[in-house]
Amino acid sequence: MKSKIMYIENKSSGHHGLAWIGFVEFSKSGQTVYFNNKALKKLKNTGIWGNHFDIETGEEYWVSGVKKNGQNRHQYGSGKIMIDKNSIEEYLKIVYFNNIDEKYFTIIEFIKTDKSRFNELENIEIEYRDNSRSASFLDNNHRKLILNI
Question: What percent of the chain has pLDDT over 70?
Fold first, then answer.
């Protein structure tokens, strides 16, 4: 699996969701991003705010490379970005900064991702109910899904 430093933002709260910078792993197909014990699957059609969704919660996420100017949040967004302590050295090389400004960042350590847990989730039989109000999330075609767990 290929590992790369990326910017990830939870878009369920618009531009003010939790955000992270750190090393992620990609699935063999490149369609799933694993980080901090989460699995984010690429949306075939971009969602309202994001380009990936959490396969457990259905929340939309924005996943992109880090910007060289350090301005990763949307211009109308706010909040500190959590940065994985194991990626700081690489991040500083990309943005040409000398240090991490704790006014804008919170240093954390990513949790190791148990990918086998997500393999099981992705292979569960899913019931399609397009008009259900109790659906837990939308699939890539924006059909509402209910997990039969």
Answer: 79
